[in-house]
TrEMBL record:
InterPro entries noted in UniProt: Alginate_export_dom (IPR025388), Porin_dom_sf (IPR023614)
Start and end residues of each Alginate export domain: 31-261
Gene3D superfamilies xrefs: Porin (2.40.160.10)
Protein's recorded name: Alginate export family protein
N-terminal signal peptide: 1-22
Domain of life: Bacteria
Length: 398
């Protein structure tokens, strides 16, 4: 695995050459995840079954009070009949967890009392990851060759800036489509967050230039507001999240467009159960739609992953969700469950379908946790009926 790639070779090589000198603090960290994913998609005559084992391991170095670095690799072993994007099994449904091994993170960082900076290949997550994230659900996460700066002039205000030079996508280095492996970028993200009591305000801008696919270049700017307040003394509370943004063509994009984004999500926590209702809108005009190519896509618009690319007609996702914890005795509160329902419609008219999601997370032993997860999508003309089931065990050493 070479450290020389992208426009940050000097920084990456510097991190590669970091010595473990006397007095340095070297901390190993690793994560092991075993998952089976079953997919029944009516667009295919055969079902998919993917059993994958992911090991992510690295060394974190800290020295001279303010400096640290991380070198981390990950490898995925896979078995089963599914289309990973790299194995050529195009007659089976896709599961974007290909086998392979690659450098995941390699960065050098500095932190002070009110500011910090990180340069190199790294995990980048802004706010709820709707616009910029690491796609952590996939076995091979999405990372970036980037420079990230953060400044907190006062406790309530945080400003973050990230320059993105290259994105290493979840499809891995062996994907048959070269554009699915990684993209050459010149993208800039700015995020401002202000918190006061139980309310948070924020604003952001993402100037995304994709040098490999100019038609994917966009400029997105938006604002958000969230908060909560207690309506009695028993821990019950109301909450909300409101967000609005505008996306238009940018850099060398040959298209001319402007699309709206909004999210309205009220919530209620009552007796330890969280209830949410939401309406997320991704604008589209029938020829082109708002896109979020650098986001963590799986948490949004249903776990069946039918809308990773927004249809040209746009997307209205109206949903209800409920989540809580279960368990008795030694396991009290350690079983986490979620259920959600989505209704998908086009911005320009028409329906796409409906979807149910459910999950149960549970402790196994010590740092080992388990997860059972289900997604059931019923089509109203967009794509085909699809059911997905996941069984997972995960072992983490921080």
């Amino acid at each position: 695995m070479s450290c020389r790639h992208g426009a940050l070779p000097a920084l990456l090589l510097a991190a590669c050459a970091l010595p473990a000198a006397a007095g340095d603090v070297v901390q190993p960290q690793w994560n092991l995840r075993l998952r089976h994913e079953h997919v029944a998609d009516d667009a295919f005559a055969r079902n998919a079954g993917a059993t994958t084992l992911r090991l992510r391991a690295g060394l974190r170095f800290a020295w001279a009070d303010h400096w640290q670095a991380l070198a981390e690799a990950e490898g995925v072993a896979a078995d089963g009949r599914y289309n990973s994007g790299a194995n050529g099994r195009v007659g089976h449904p896709g599961v974007a967890d290909p086998a392979g091994a690659e450098l995941n993170q390699l960065w050098l960082g500095w932190h002070g009392e009110r500011a910090k900076a990180t340069a190199g290949r790294q995990r980048v997550q802004l706010d709820n990851q709707r616009w910029l994230g690491n796609s952590g659900w996939r076995q091979n996460e999405q990372t970036f060759d980037a420079v990230a700066l953060e400044w907190t002039p006062v406790a309530a205000l945080t400003a973050r800036y990230v320059w993105l030079d290259r994105v290493h996508r979840v499809n891995g280095d062996d994907a048959r489509d070269p554009l699915a492996r990684e993209r050459d970028l010149d993208s800039h993200a700015l995020d401002l967050a202000f918190a006061h009591n139980d309310q948070q305000w924020g604003g952001y801008a993402l100037a995304h230039e994709d040098r490999d696919v100019p038609a994917a270049s966009t400029l997105t700017a938006g604002v958000r507001w969230s908060g909560q307040y207690a309506h009695d003394g028993g821990g019950n509370r109301w909450g909300w999240r409101v967000e609005a943004a505008r996306q238009r063509d940018h850099a060398g994009n040959p298209h001319d467009f402007a699309h709206a984004y909004w999210l309205f999500e009220p919530s209620l926590v009552r007796r330890g159960v969280t209830w949410r209702a939401g309406w997320e809108h991704l604008g589209g005009d029938g020829r082109h739609a708002l896109q979020t190519p650098l986001a963590s896509l799986h948490p949004f618009n249903g776990w069946a992953d039918k809308f990773g690319v927004t249809p040209a007609g746009g997307l209205d996702d109206r949903y209800l969700a409920v989540a809580g914890k279960l368990g008795r005795g030694a396991h009290a509160g350690k079983l986490s469950w979620t259920a959600a329902w989505h209704d998908y419609r086009a911005d320009s008219g028409g329906r796409y379908g409906r979807e149910w999601n459910a999950s149960l997370g549970f402790p196994v032993r010590g740092p080992v946790t388990g997860l059972v997860k289900l997604a059931d999508y019923r089509s109203d003309g967009f794509a085909r009926d699809t059911t997905k089931l996941w069984l997972q065990l995960e072992w983490t050493r921080p």
